[in-house]
Amino acid sequence: MPKHTIVLIPGDGIGPEVSSAARRVIEAAGLEVEWVVVPAGADAIERHGYDNVLPDVTLDAIRQHKIALKGPVTTPVGKGFKSVNVQLRQKLGLYAAVRPVRSLAGIKTRYEGVDMVIVRENTEGLYTGIENEITPGVVTSLKVATEKACTRIAQYAFHYAMQRHRRKVTVFHKANIMKLTDGMFLNCSRRVHEEQYPEVAYDEVIIDAGCMKLVQDPTKMDVLLMENLYGDLVSDLCAGLVGGLGVVPGSNIGADSAVFEAVHGSAPDIAGKGLANPLALIMSGVMMLNHIGETAIAEKIKTSYNRVLADGKPNTLTRDLGGTASTSDFAEAVIAKL
Ligand code: NAI
């Protein structure tokens, strides 16, 4: 019997390529694992014949096994089905998206020493998707903030900061305009700080100025706490500070289960060409291994990809990092260093 059973969702676009690379690296590093492979996204309908982009078989597998590694899935723009990711996070109560953004040796960017973590509320805000046409030519979108969810995500961020000896939690908000919803987010954050985590440093910034500060000097930032939409946007912005979407991992954490996935999407522009960088999903796999207590295997993989990056050989770096390696070439290079 393998020690772990983990759900694997290959996803759409570059998803199958990067998830197969991550799976190979994790297995080569020695994890005793049985993968339960289930579909989501267009893949569920087109290849597996389900009538739904998030079939029950997928939700049930995650509920049963608690841990999933997930490739990206495509969501149609301006029409079609509700985002699979939003549904998955809401249905499984994966309330905290945790996205570490760090400078990596060997990846040259404008900044050095970036080391921050975005903690994004993952279940409400504008992503409830409650939109209405009031009358032709007038549409609305409802932003929802509940005290329960705002408090829960603030507790998660402060707890995370304290456990990992981080310097500070900074809330990004727009409570000057959205006085009730972002006001609720801010008030809950302040209360959690004052009542439960006064020893963690805390500050807040209006998000527009926060974005300016991020691009001026991201090394001044530490744990960034924000609601759903802001966290989505700021994650990609921050990815751009450390080498792009190919190098930023993530996790979606709930009380009962956790789904690990990269920040990037299904990248239809490069899908099926072997051009995708699998590192972000491999790093998400490392987060998953730490989460399930396989810290030695996690460390082994981390050391290996860091060595590949530090070597900086064009034939072992993918194109987004200036190299010529394919998705599987990169995975093989990491495996060779294990
Ligand atoms: P995207 O993240 O898929 O791509 C943005 C740009 O980054 C593209 O030029 C792409 O080629 C590049 N890129 C992304 N990941 C890369 C990787 N691993 N290696 C090298 N280059 C990479 O964002 P986009 O184009 O806005 O969205 C495409 C689709 O993905 C949409 O349907 C969107 O809804 C979905 N999406 C899914 C997510 C998920 O499943 N977690 C997250 C974000 C978007």
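^ NAI complex. Residues 14, 18, 72-75, 85, 245-246, 261, 264-270, 276-277, 280, 320 surround NAI (CB under 6 Å). The longest strand covers residues 96-102.
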